[in-house]
Amino acid sequence: MEDQNPYAALADLSDDLSRLTTAVAPHLVLIEAGRRRPATGTMWREGVVVTAAHAIRDTEHMRAIGSSSAPLAATLAGWDLASDLAVLKVDQLTGPSLSMQADLRAMLVGELVVALSGSSNAPVARLTMVSGVGRLEPLRRGGRRGDVIELDLEPFSGFSGGPLVDSRGNIVAINTAGLVRGVALALPLDLVSSVVDELLARGRIARGYLGIGVHPVRVPSADRDRGATGSGLLVHSMEVDGPAERAGLMVGDILISIEGRSLDTPLRLLEELGGERVGESVVLGVIRGGNSIEITVVVGERPQRTAGRRCRSR
Description:
Layout: H1 8-24, E1 28-32, E2 39-45, E3 48-52, E4 63-65, E5 72-73, E6 75-80, E7 85-89, E8 112-117, E9 124-135, E10 147-151, E11 163-165, E12 171-176, E13 185-188, H2 189-202, E14 208-209, E15 212-218, H3 221-224, E16 231-238, H4 243-247, E17 254-258, E18 261-262, H5 266-272, E19 281-288, E20 291-298, E21 300-301
Antiparallel strand pairs: 1-2, 1-4, 2-3, 3-7, 4-5, 6-7, 8-9, 8-11, 9-10, 10-13, 11-12, 12-13, 14-21, 15-16, 16-17, 17-18, 17-19, 19-20
């Protein structure tokens, strides 16, 4: 009688992981962009690659290498440092499409996932667990918020820009170690998709701003009788000739609403200043010297920033 494998479940898991890695490998792209080691990119669709913005050091001499192609010239379509995403255009690069692959279901803490990266020899795969799912506080001014996936592993070489794969074999996110130092995160495809679409269309992510610095404060009880809630945002700094200063806002003002919606945290204000607001007039509810007033501000577009000493914005 043939001996049965006492570790059949473990053997099956090993076989499944190997097949999963082989199936996803055609999505991996190596990117030569001014680093000693190539960065990892993920094929979004033919001719379009998504990678990590912080992995790009030289936008003038980039090359991309797919799973079955020689090095091809790549050009930067645009990047968004707030989400650490960059989009490259690579003519003649062919491969599977990613944008419609995943079912976009919500990930759960405790799920097993596989993080992949590219290398010059063969794909690198790490089995790990989802340790957290939630909102990422904006780490840079004007940062894009959204549900992000935290992974129970240390970021490894080539991690950023590679795909995260669930137990069904679906690519569900793009990995990044560029948002929180030393923390392995992954951005779900629904968040990535909106950034990719805008970068391909405009070359940048438009974000509104007022040109002010704020922090939350408790609104005095006397002012609550004038329509204020329990909290507001104290203006503690202001950009010279910024949208807020031009509208007449002053340091020391307390913002309590925007377009009639209450403001109680800086995050709430950022959420109200999406790219669709740029150029629009918004009405701010303000407490100044114990009086409630309204100030109309034309929302500006936050200036774009660059990454890396040799990177040139396009």
